[in-house]
TrEMBL record:
InterPro entries: GlcNAc_PI_deacetylase-related (IPR003737), LmbE-like_dom_sf (IPR024078). It comes from the Bacteria. GO terms for molecular function: hydrolase activity, acting on carbon-nitrogen (but not peptide) bonds, in linear amides. Transmembrane segments: none annotated. It comes from Segatella copri. This is PIG-L family deacetylase. Pfam families: PIG-L.
Length: 250
């Protein structure tokens, strides 16, 4: 048995253990305004598609902020221009949003470099201004960003730190939550289950999430690989669960 097969088997066992632990967690309560912040185009669907559908159906306002264009998804793969990758991936974000019911006016694209999200970047000032504009005196606000200990990718961790710090200043009463994307793939054991919340999708919501995922992973670039890059099968399997796990941070 190859090392890859063994690692995938262990990862699946880990995911199953996490799912069993999360099975009886309470539902996530909703706010009038929810802001989803994704490091790359597709993280919002993997982590929060069920939640966003539920909020939109309840008449709540959802705003989506994408930090990077995901322009490094084909690094070391082919000679596709990075600007074209960004353009294509942003179009996929808009198409996926149509599946789960989010209008384009509520989608905001920033220009942090893929693989190089830093708080010192000038984009942080733009993000701060955008948050001020979106919140605009609202009191019932929730913000969602990737899990700080379980995501593995630096862009995910740095995004969480930047957003958390900005909301502490701009909207200190906002509820802050972490969502899970690569959390399922990496060996994360530092988990505060006391703060965990669950969104249990119905069949329709789950089917919509699967369609939105397909919007990202099915279209192929000229090289024959998805615009978003090739994602590990175990990662895709884990994120196609009919539930979404969140952690209340504040």
């Amino acid at each position: 048995m190859s090392n890859i097969i063994i690692k995938d088997f262990v990862r699946k066992l880990h995911v199953c253990a996490l799912r069993l632990r999360a099975k009886n967690i309470l539902y996530l309560s909703s706010a009038n305004l929810s802001i989803i912040v994704a490091p790359h185009p597709d993280d919002e669907v993997f982590g929060c598609c069920g939640l966003m559908q539920r909020l939109i159906a309840q008449g709540k306002r959802v705003e989506l902020i994408i930090m990077t264009g995901g322009g490094k998804s084909h690094a070391g793969c082919c000679d596709i221009d990075e600007s074209e990758l960004i353009r294509q991936r942003r179009q996929l974000t808009i198409r996926a949003a149509k599946e789960y019911g989010l209008s384009q006016e509520y989608i905001h694209f920033l220009d942090y470099p893929d693989g190089g999200v830093l708080e010192s970047d000038s984009q942080t000032d733009k993000l701060s201004s955008l948050i001020h504009k979106i919140v605009d005196g609202q009191n019932d606000v929730s913000v969602f960003y990737p899990h700080k200990n379980g995501e593995g990718w630096s862009d995910h961790v740095t995004t969480s730190n930047i957003v958390s710090h900005l909301f502490d200043k701009i909207c200190p009463n906002a509820k802050q939550y972490e969502y899970c994307v690569w959390f399922w793939f990496y060996n994360c054991w530092k988990i505060d289950w006391k703060q965990a919340c669950l969104v249990k999708m119905n069949k329709k919501e789950h089917a919509v999430k699967l369609k939105a995922i397909d919007v990202y992973i099915e279209p192929k670039a000229p090289c024959g690989k998805p615009w978003s890059g090739v994602l590990p099968p175990v990662f895709l399997w884990a994120n196609k669960w009919d539930k979404e796990l969140y952690f209340r941070v504040k």
